Amino acid sequence: MEKLNQILAKVLEIDPNSITDLTSPENTPSWDSFNGLLLITELEKGFEVKFTIDEVVAVKNVGDIKKALKRQGVKLD
Q: What are the Cα distances from residue 41, in Å, to 17, 29, 50, 76?
């Protein structure tokens, strides 16, 4: 979980302690379309996975990112 929060905090320039499953573009001003793409790239590199377009489109918040990573076989705990 710490690695995920570090990536989110770095890309979105937010406090890692403020990140919850409900953190989303709606409540995080820096999570714009550009940073959304950058976030996908950093997550793929950091966790050595490759997301499908459907997975990327389905992500609405951090909870969705966790689900997508788990489907890719990533252990977050």
A: 22, 19, 9, 18
